[in-house]
């Protein structure tokens, strides 16, 4: 087994806690479902949010997923680059996997599909 990175991103329409929690959980669940990942396969999850997201930590959504109590999770801010996609939550999940990098499916939802259109066609 090798540690692989699984990427994902999503956006919210406004900075509200319920939207942050809902969209983050939806993204993470889709990432694990599509890639056949179990909580015990996850080494860690890093979530970043653009600086216009302040109502809640995206990690709160991940910690609420059943069976994820012991998964190490951390939230941080994304770099504030002019012209970058607003209200965006990104996920980097480190997982133990037998898949090759090419077999990993990275998930981009909502407006975040603009970030990696080359990968969205796979999903």
Which keywords apply here?
single chain, 123 residues, alpha/beta, 60s Ribosomal Protein L30, Chain: A, five-stranded mixed β-sheet, 3 helices, 5 strands, 23% helix, EC 5.4.99.5, isomerase, amino-acid biosynthesis, chorismate mutase
Helix content: 10-25%
What is the rounded Rg? 14 Å
* Contiguous runs where pLDDT drops below 50 for at least 5 residues: none
Q: Write down the overall mean pLDDT.
A: 93
Count up the domains.
1
Class of secondary structure makeup: alpha/beta
Helix segment count? 3
**CATH architecture label name:** 2-Layer Sandwich
How far from one another are the termini? 23 Å
Strand order in the largest sheet: 3-2-4-1-5
The 3D shape can be described as globular
CATH superfamily: RutC-like
Element string (H = helix, E = strand): EHEHEEEH
GO molecular function, one term: chorismate mutase activity
Pfam families: CM_1
Catalytic activity: chorismate = prephenate
Keywords: Amino-acid biosynthesis, Aromatic amino acid biosynthesis, Isomerase
